[in-house]
Structures are given as C-alpha cells and as structure tokens.
Amino acid sequence: MNGPFQTAPELTATALPAEFAALAPPPLLLPGEHLNHYHALRQAIFADLAPRSAIEWLLAIDVAELSWEILRYRMLRHRLLETYRQKAIEAALRRIDMVGIDPDFEPQAEYYTQQNALSWRTDPIAATEIEARLAAYGCDQDAVTTEVYVQAREVLVLFEGLLNAAQTKRTLLLREIRHQRFVSAPMRRPCL
Fold this sequence. Notes:
mainly alpha
C-alpha cells in the first residue's frame, strides 16, 4: 500500500493460490457494492504485500477483508450523513413553515415539509429554491451542517468506533506480516 500504484496487468502477478481459495470466500455485498471493486482492492493488496508463506497469505486475506470493511464503513457513514442532511433540512423547514399553523392542519403541513425535504434531496432546482428560502431566514449551510452532526452524533460515534477497530486490526496484521518476514529471514553473521 506504500508503493507506487500498479496498473491492472501488473496486479495479476500475485494471485491467490488455489489452495487458499476456500479461506477467502466471496464477500457478502451490500446494495451498491460491486464484486469487481472488491476483487480489485484485494488484488492490489495481495500485489503490494506479496505474501510468501501460508501464514502471510492468511494474514493478507484478513488485511484485504478489513480494508473492504473500512471502505464500507466510510461509504455507509457518507450515506448516513446524506440522510441526516435531509432530516436537518426538514427540521429547518419545520421551524420556518410550521410557525403559526393551526393544530388541525399540522399533519398536512408536516407531510408537505417532509415532501419538500425529499425534493431538496432529489431535485437540484428545488434544492436551490429551498436553500435560498432557508438562507433568507438566516439558516445557511453551516447551520444545516451543525444540525446534521447534532442529530447524527451517536451514530457517528458508532461508525468511528467501527473504523478505528478495523484500522487497528489491519495495522496489527501488517505488523505481523513484517514480523513473519523478519523471523523467517536468514540470520546474517557479521564478517570477521
């Protein structure tokens, strides 16, 4: 991972040996994930680590799996922030649009507020109009972002823990590979 980036033909030099294929089954992918992306990441890691022994292959497989998990956590965190941004827009619209609404009309107003927030997320023209309306009431993008992080703080802590745990495990595995190579390297005697 620290070396120069390799192109696809160069990455085929270090392929998973057939005897280890059973130890690296295909991943269970989430919607939006692609098997070819997983294989490209795994192959890049194998090429970079260039495992030389059975133990190193097992460790390299784990490094690849953890690296995929880290990418997954980052993508899920990004999607989470998008969802919470929509909720923050909805909360800001509610503070503006629901003021003075007759209690009999609150359910309908709430529905339209939710629809406007959805339109903000899916329609660029609606997003521009809604953001301009929010800005007119003093609710700029910084205020929306603050609301996002306030609403998502507990879930973000969860993702931070998952990311940190996976990164720590990956670092330990990389150290173990280095240790395996140091232990198996022939001892050189100093010349007398």
